[in-house]
Structure formats: C-alpha cells, structure tokens
Amino acid sequence: MLHSDQIKAEAKRLGFYAAGIAPAAPLDEEYARRYKAWLAGGHQADMAWIENNLEKRLNPCLLVEGAQTIVSVALGYYLPDSQAGGAVSLARYARGRDYHDVMRERLKALMAALGLQDYVDGRIFCDTAPIDERYWAKQCGLGWPGRSGQFIIPGAGTYFFLGELVLIHPADHYDQPTTGRCGECRRCIDACPTGALMGDGTLDARRCLSYLTIEHRGELPIGTGSKMGSCFYGCDRCAEACPWNRFAPATAEKDFQPKTQLKQMTATNWQSLTIEDYRRLFKGSAVKRAGFEGLTRNIQALHTAEDNEE
Ligand code: SF4
Ligand code: SF4
Questions:
Q1: Shortest-distance Cα residue to atom 6 of ligand 1
Q2: Which of 1, 51, 90, 175 qualifies as a FRET site for 45, CA 20 to 30 Å off?
C-alpha cells in the first residue's frame, strides 16, 4: 500500500512544486471522444507519435500491466527574463538543461525514496510515452488544462514540466480531480499571433509556432517569421498572456538556469551561429530537437521579417 502523505512529502523534498495521486483507469469517454475527433481533424500535424499507441494513451493500464495508481508531479522552470539574458530568444522551457533528463532523474529519486523500483513496481514517464499528462495532472488535483492547452496550477501558472509514476500498488488516499477555472477569459486566444488556439482548450499544431519552429522539417510557411516576435525556438505568447502566470514562482533548479555563454548571445551572434557554436551552446539541451538546420532556418526567418519591416 502506498502512503499518499509520504509520496507528497518526498516529492516536495525533491523539489517538485506539486504532487497528486489518482486511481489508474481508462480516460473518461467524453474526453476520449474529443481526443479522437482532434486527431481525425489532423490538428496534430505530422507528429505521428501522438497518434501511435492510441489505445495505451486512452488507458494507462495497457501501458503498465496491473497499474493501480498514478502519481502526477510538477517541476517549475520559470525564471525572470532579467536572469535569462540572450536566452530570451528561446521559449522559456528550453533555456536550461533538457527537462526530460532532469525530470527522469528526479522521478527515479522519488521512486527510490519510496522504496520502489522502475519496471518492478511500475514505471516513470516524462513526455516520452503515450500518456496524457495533462489529463492525469487534472485527475490528481494539480490544476487544469487551460484554454491555451497548457496546464495551469492555481496560484502558480503554467511554467511547469509534468511527470508521472504509474504504479501497480494501491494508495491509501486519492485526490479529487480539479475543476477548470479559465471562466470567461480568452487572453491566450487573443494573444496568439497565428490563430492556433481553437477556443476549446485544443490547438491546431499546423498553425502553432511551437510546432513550426521545433518539430516541422523543411521550409516554414510564408509569413511565419513576421509572427515570431523575438523568439526563434518555440513560443511563449499564450503563456505570457495568461493571468495565472503573474504568480509564477521562480525556479530554484540550477539545471534550468541558462548557460553563461547562452546568456551572452546577441542578435548578431545568433545570425552568424556556426555548427560549433550550436553544439557548444546546446549540449544536453532540448533545443537539439530542432537540429542546426531547423534553428538557423528560424533565425533566418526572423531576421528576414525584421529586414522587411524596416
Ligand atoms: S505557442 Fe504561440 S503560436 Fe502556439 S498557440 Fe501559443 S501563442 Fe499561439
Ligand atoms: S489566458 Fe485565460 S483562458 Fe487562457 S489559459 Fe490562461 S486563464 Fe485560461
């Protein structure tokens, strides 16, 4: 039997901002129906992994045999721009060390602190398997997926990575799911420069700058550069508009601090980025996902748009 209070106390000791616990079960039918409709509309663009293993995504008990309990945790990454320097050209989540690595290490530490073993007592997940992390964070009482599609922790905002333990043991207490509190607010939708947010908490990845500047290969659609603002890797516009982020707590995680060389980059340095600079700046960083070609394509698109505006 897992002890809910112990799980939360250990999670807090390890630096997680929040932790919650829910019984493992198939996702509710209405949610699954809307998810399938979103896929059928092609809104996932060419991110095939979102479609793959759909049955497991809709039922974590197929992902981990005998699953009984899901623990959802949140790790904060917000840093004020004054501490990020030249790294402000990258979306906030990508300015430090690759969060997959940080989260994986921390979840392993949580398992160990609870006397549990990965692949024996369950499994750890961090954006690496077909598990709907925002759905489970809501079921675990951490907050709710906002109209922006980003997960909101009340009183703390959206600048959090989510991770999960899917465990084969029952817990002595489960949290209640949270009710959404976006109300009548539509600030994220109004702030989106590409009209990617569909108003129901989903987005059309084909229009989203986060998808286009990170996942998309090949040429960017015409006009993308003029919508990118000052950010050439990802986009934080909907997050910045969200009123809950006024309360974002600064992270104490050293791993999420940008490297000194990254902070010193200027617009001119970015425009003349070499493959050696790229390797040095982004060793161990999530930015490598775009590749050197993708990143320089984005920088060029931004630069060209700026020239056209002058
Ligand atoms: S990340 Fe940017 S482009 Fe994507 S939905 Fe948010 S504001 Fe729109
Ligand atoms: S900006 Fe408003 S509508 Fe959008 S996620 Fe935040 S609270 Fe919800």
A1: 238
A2: 90
Three-state SS at 122? strand
Q: List, for residues 111-169, the tens digit of each pLDDT value.
A: 999 999 999 999 999 988 899 999 999 999 999 999 999 999 999 999 999 999 999 99
Closest C-alpha residue for ligand 2 atom 8: 182
Ligand 1 in contact with 224 (CB < 6 A)?
Answer: no
Q: Which domain holds residue 123?
A: 4-167
Rg (C-alpha) for the chain, rounded Å, is 20
DSSP letters spanning 25-76: -PPPHHHHHHHHHHHHTTTTTT-HHHHTTHHHHT-HHHHSTT--EEEEEEEE
Please report whether residue 161 resides in a domain.
yes
Q: What is the pLDDT of residues 5-62, one digit of tens each?
A: 999 999 999 999 999 999 999 999 999 999 898 888 888 887 777 878 889 999 999 9
How many domains in the chain?
A: 1
Ligand nearest to the CA of 187: 2
Does residue 212 fall inside a structural domain? no
Mutate to test the pocket of ligand 2, among 159, 178, 186 (most ligand atoms within 8 A of CB): 186
- Residue 242 domain flag: no
Place of tokens 């959206």: 158
